[in-house]
């Protein structure tokens, strides 16, 4: 079972939170350390400047006084006597009084001679740091940190020089309680604010990762729907980041996949339709061949069993059946070659008016014609186009009463040649029009095999016209007649 910690969103949120925690901790520690270091450096520089300034001053004119021999009054003040320095709490002439507030001044200075006697000092007569005093008496400056009256104190000592010789040591002390308080405050502030910052960051990271990963959730849902067969799923593209590019790529992939499935389905339907057409074609061809073969067999059987006077009638029947089979065979051969693209068309430029005229010459019935004065040049096989036009005229003659007119017109419209065969015969109902070019399709008994129709003529016409790069269409209305239109390209 997937939990929040094992989910991608949970891992991304935890990773973001961990990164933020490490970054925040490092930044806080570094910033605190920099501030404390600068403050410590400022304290040290201040102590050094004060000590070095005092180190070049002359000693008190009354002479140095040993802190061992000094006597204090009832209130802890030194008694004034020869050689004493200024009383405690007073500032020597020319010096700025140090700030007050604590067990000792923030910057307390002592001037000590080479014998360890304090010649100038405040807040007691003791040396701050004996070890540091001895180091400075040997000519070396230095720092140290001590506990002075219960408070952390920073001490700096430097040699006290007079006329090129060392007269003693100058010590300067600084109370570090404020420095320690600041350091503690930074630590406690960080400990108090870090959990709050991390909690707020966790909520923000959770919400932001949820928003950032929403396109991936949409993609997952879309992929699930596509897996169930809905290939029309698409993602909404927002922005121009990596997820937006991923969404566009997903949409392109989905579109290609849908198009592939549609092409596959169309190919399957086309194959299925072709198979069905082939099956129907084979059945119809077998049926059409069976009829003349049956007539031929009946005629020959009757001739063999009957008297000699019946030979002529039997031969006429056999001859008619043979002609029917020959015609059917020719038409089937033309369709087979058309399907295979092996019609063997000649590509020559000729006047289409001549082809229409030749097609009209094969009929004893009067047929009206309308030709333009100039030549209509097309490129193709003249014999095949004559056969198409003749077939259309034959259909019109077969289904048009003798007292009804039939006409053939030829024209040129917008770079195309239009041949129209029109009659005023019985017409064809609307439901039959989409199927007229199907092989072996017959409208009704009136268009059956009794009048010579097999049902392949219009299919052959369509194949031949399309092989010439043209198109053929039929418009008809019951009781008003039929109009068949052929459109061909004009030869360049």
Please give a quick description of this structure.
The protein is α+β, with helices and mostly antiparallel strands.
Describe the overall structure.
With 492 residues, the protein is α+β, with helices and mostly antiparallel strands. It has three domains: 1-58 and 103-230, PAS domain (Beta-Lactamase, 2-Layer Sandwich); 231-342, Signal transduction histidine kinase, dimerisation/phosphotransfer (DHp) domain (Helix Hairpins); 343-489, 2-Layer Sandwich (Heat Shock Protein 90), CATH 3.30.565. It has helices spanning 8-55, 130-137, 177-227, 242-305, 311-340, 352-360, 382-398, 457-467; strands at residues 107-113, 118-120, 142-148, 151-162, 165-175, 348-351, 368-370, 377-380, 406-413, 416-423, 471-477, 481-489. The two termini are 75 Å apart. Residues 62-106 and 445-450 have low confidence and may be disordered.
Question: What's the arrangement of secondary structure elements?
Answer:
Blueprint: H1 8-55, E1 107-113, E2 118-120, H2 130-137, E3 142-148, E4 151-162, E5 165-175, H3 177-227, H4 242-305, H5 311-340, E6 348-351, H6 352-360, E7 368-370, E8 377-380, H7 382-398, E9 406-413, E10 416-423, H8 457-467, E11 471-477, E12 481-489
Parallel strand pairs: 7-9
Antiparallel strand pairs: 1-2, 1-5, 3-4, 4-5, 6-8, 9-10, 10-12, 11-12
Helix pairs in contact: 1-3, 3-4, 4-5, 5-8, 6-7, 7-8
């Amino acid at each position: 079972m997937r939990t929040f910690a094992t989910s991608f969103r949970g891992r991304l949120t935890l990773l973001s939170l961990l990164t933020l925690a490490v970054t925040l901790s490092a930044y806080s520690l570094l910033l605190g350390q920099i501030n404390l270091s600068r403050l410590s450096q400022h304290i040290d520089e201040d102590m050094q400047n004060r000590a070095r300034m005092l180190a070049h001053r002359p000693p008190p004119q009354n002479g140095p006084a040993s802190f061992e021999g000094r006597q204090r009054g009832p209130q802890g003040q030194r008694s004034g006597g020869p050689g004493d320095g200024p009383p405690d709490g007073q500032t020597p002439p020319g010096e700025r009084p140090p700030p007050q507030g604590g067990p000792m001044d923030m910057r307390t200075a002592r001037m000590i001679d080479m014998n360890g006697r304090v010649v100038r000092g405040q807040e007691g007569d003791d040396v701050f740091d004996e070890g540091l005093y001895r180091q400075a008496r040997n000519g070396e400056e230095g720092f140290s940190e001590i506990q002075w009256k219960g408070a952390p104190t920073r001490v700096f000592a430097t040699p006290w020089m007079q006329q090129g010789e060392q007269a003693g040591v100058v010590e300067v002390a600084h109370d570090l309680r404020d420095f320690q308080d600041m350091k503690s405050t930074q630590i406690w502030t960080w400990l108090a604010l870090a959990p709050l910052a991390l909690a707020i960051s966790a909520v923000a990271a959770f919400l932001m990762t949820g928003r950032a990963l929403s396109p991936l959730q949409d993609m997952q849902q879309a992929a699930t729907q596509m897996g169930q067969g809905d290939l029309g799923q698409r993602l909404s593209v927002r922005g121009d980041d990596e997820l937006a590019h991923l969404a566009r790529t997903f949409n392109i992939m989905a579109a290609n996949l849908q198009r592939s499935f549609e092409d596959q389905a169309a190919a399957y339907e086309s194959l299925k339709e072709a198979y069905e057409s082939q099956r129907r074609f084979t059945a119809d061809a077998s049926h059409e061949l069976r009829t003349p073969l049956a007539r031929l067999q009946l005629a020959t059987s009757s001739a063999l069993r009957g008297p000699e006077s019946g030979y002529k009638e039997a031969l006429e029947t056999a001859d008619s059946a043979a002609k029917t089979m020959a015609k059917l065979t020719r038409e089937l051969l033309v369709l087979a070659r058309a399907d295979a693209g092996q019609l063997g068309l000649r590509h020559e430029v000729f006047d289409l008016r001549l082809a229409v005229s030749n097609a009209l010459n094969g009929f004893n019935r009067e047929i009206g014609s309308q030709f333009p004065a100039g030549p209509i040049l097309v490129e193709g096989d003249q014999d095949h186009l004559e056969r198409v036009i003749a077939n259309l005229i034959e259909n019109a003659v077969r289904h048009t009463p003798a007292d009804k007119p039939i006409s053939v017109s030829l024209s040129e419209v917008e770079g195309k040649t239009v041949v129209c065969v029109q009659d005023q015969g019985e017409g064809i109902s609307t439901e039959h029009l989409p199927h007229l070019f199907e092989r072996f399709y017959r409208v009704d008994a009136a268009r059956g095999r009794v009048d010579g129709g097999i049902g392949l003529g219009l299919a052959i016409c369509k194949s031949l016209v399309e092989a010439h790069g043209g198109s053929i269409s039929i418009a008809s209305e019951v009781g008003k007649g039929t109009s068949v239109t052929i459109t061909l390209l004009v030869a360049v």
